[in-house]
Predict the structure.
Amino acid sequence: MDDDVVIGLLRAVNVGGRTLTSAVLRATASDLGYRDVATYAASGNVVLRAAHGAPQVAADLGAALTTAAGFEVRVVTRTSRQWDRAVAALPFADAARDDPARLALVAWDGPVDTTRVDAFDPTRYGPEQLAWHGSELYAYYPDGMGRSRLTLPVLERAAGRAGTSRNWRTVLALAALAHERAGA
């Protein structure tokens, strides 16, 4: 079986005293037998090659990082192909071009609860624009993410899932790292 290129997104690390360095992330992934391991930024992003699928990477890497860090580390994963499909499905092309720092992709740990999503009214929180798409959410924050009342916990309640958010620049950087590994 060919190795899958997998993107791992750590949830809620390097915030609120939950520190996990990129060096520990790389070492832990390598110790699990993953190859071509690379991290991006210090916010819990890893791209690697695995002999088994993304769900197993999420489970194994999450368990190993929880042990290494001393606190629960949840990992949301996507294969390179899944990530490329998420990039291609972007409904906010103008924001991606003109204001990528205010555009985010939220990757959920599974399919969202469509009944809850359909009942959710984001206009109660501000001017943000949302587009739900399978196990992802695209969010444009015209006034910036840091000032928004439409926080990840609010979105998680709406989705009925746990997730993690990355700005569009990070999304594209992870896609580039995944493509490099796919060619290796």
